[in-house]
Amino acid sequence: MRNNWAMTTSPPHRIAVLALDDVVGLDLGTPSQVFSTARSADGVSMYQVEVCTPGGRPVRSTAGYQVTPEHGLELIETADTVIVPGIHSGAPLTDGTLDDEVTAALRAAYERGARIMSICTSAFVLAAAGLLDGRRATTHWAYADRFRRLHPDVDLDPDVLFIDDDRVLTSAGVAAGIDLCLHVIRTDHGTEVANRAARRCVVPPWREGGQAQYIEHPVPKVADSSTATAREWARQRLHEPVSLRDLAEQSRMSVRTFTRRFRSETGLSPAQWLLQQRTDHARLLLETTDLSIDQVARRCGFGTAAALRQQLHLRIGVAPSAYRRAFRRQPAPAEPASV
Question: SS3 of 45, please?
Fold first, then answer.
């Protein structure tokens, strides 16, 4: 498990968003919107987000407006996290190069211990700065071939939403930036804070970083989309055995039709989705209750502590007890031992 940033920096955690010419409007607004919703139980902001540009100059956005920042690159010098939103033009995309001043600022931030993040095509910026060589990274799937041509030393995986490689994090296009920001909040402050932030942003609280960037089949029309009821039914019964046939019956479909529609709507198989829900619930219980590992395993449908340990280690690389020590914020009243 990498460092818990919430514990290693004094609040609020300082985030510098570096906007370059032709910055993607949605990507630029995502960090401020998502991180501003992360607050402590008493309402204190956990992050301070500010925008900078090279020389503090205005830059163009893809949304038809100019960005007039209050800071130049000096903001990066004291930031705990640096985020680069996507761009739609410029040397990083055309020939894989980057302004020397920007390169120096990003490398200096990384070398002093800051966390560096890219949203969408700004993976080209990090790669041009030499921060992705030998690392696993992702970017928007439509730019994968170009990225590989320009940066053959980067282990590119264009089939995932985001990748967390120690202090360098990259995400896929557009909405995947939201997933990455929520992942960082969850890493820094735990599932409960991240879930509250997601609710304020009216977005799903968790999509696996390894989930496919795009769904292979078209999403069904709302009138035809009928696995949502089954998903909610399953969420209320995570402590019980839930079979594929049970889910299909809730949607009044054949197993074959249900499986096809489920994957179309979620991008996951029913089994993958159910494991994700069970694991997320286990993480929440580990953070917020005094239940034993065995009790958590039973309440989440894993049955045994060994099964929970295996699944948690597979997904985030740690044992339940280690996860609880790292992310438990404060003692919670013990819940009844019965399950």
Answer: strand
